[in-house]
Design a protein that fits this description.
There is one protein chain. Strand 5 and strand 6 (155-157) form a beta hairpin. Helix 2 packs antiparallel against helix 4 (90-120), helix 4 (90-120) runs antiparallel to helix 6 (159-171) and helix 6 crosses helix 7. The chain is mainly α and 221 residues long. It has seven helices and six strands. The strands form three sheets. The chain has a two-stranded antiparallel ribbon with strand order 1-2. A two-stranded parallel ribbon has the order 3-4. A two-stranded antiparallel ribbon has the order 5-6. The protein is globular and about 60 Å long. Helix content is 53%, strand content 6%. It has one domain (23-218).
Length: 221
């Protein structure tokens, strides 16, 4: 007599594996199919990133070819306006402005999106809202400069963004022209610029960027 046996196998993905799949989609997100738009998720319950994933995403963002092109445009605009005159003009002046602009970008990304988010267990991504009144969505986006979602899924003060901007602002004192350095003043100026930029970026993510971001609709709740 043969007794039949049925064995059921349930395969459950870990949170890290789910996050890895979601990150792969985010790494394909580009504005107008060109400019990286990695730091937004359209899933309200997106799986939290591990420290390793935060560093991988940040590194890929800083070395993307388009990031170098955008830095070149910023340096060109500063050269045309003679911003930071201590750098001078000509090729040498442009090179110094380019180096400073890229250093600002890298330090802001490393501190604000990688190091502090890993230390404080906070998510560096913007969580798209997409529902509610325009006023509610605007306030939500602006608030994301100073609040963020923790890896535990709860909203909390965005220590990573604030301290990241302060750290990046402090580092900038090392390479800006002496005539443009004023210690604490430059640090807090660059911090304020960083936070304002975060708020502006969040508003753009909430109201405009999804329409022109490739692969954005692959993330569906």
């Amino acid at each position: 007599m043969v007794v039949g046996t049925t064995v059921e196998v349930n395969v459950t993905q870990t949170r890290e594996e789910i996050a890895e799949q979601q990150v792969h989609v985010e790494e394909e997100q580009r504005l107008f199919k060109v400019v990286p738009n990695y730091y937004v998720t359209y899933l309200p319950d997106a799986s939290p990133l591990t420290a390793k994933q935060k560093f991988q995403l940040g590194w890929k963002f800083t070395v993307d070819p388009i990031s170098f092109v955008i830095t070149g445009v910023i340096a060109g605009a500063e050269q045309a306006n003679n911003s930071f005159p201590g750098y001078g003009q000509g090729a040498q002046g442009y090179g110094k402005r380019y180096g400073a602009a890229y250093a600002d970008f890298v330090s802001g990304t490393f501190f604000g999106n990688m190091i502090f988010p890993a230390l404080f267990k906070q998510d560096p991504r913007y969580f798209y809202k997409g529902t509610g009144s325009k006023k509610a969505r605007l306030l939500y986006a602006l608030a994301n400069a100073v609040i963020c979602k923790g890896d535990n899924g709860h909203w909390q003060p965005n220590y990573s963004s604030v301290l990241g901007s302060l750290a990046a602002g402090g580092v900038s004192n090392l390479y800006y022209p002496a005539s443009n350095r004023n210690g604490v003043g430059l640090t807090f100026t660059n911090t304020a610029i960083g936070l304002a930029g975060s708020a502006g970026s969040a508003v753009a993510q909430e109201f405009f960027f999804r329409k022109v971001t490739s692969h954005s609709h692959e993330q569906t709740p």
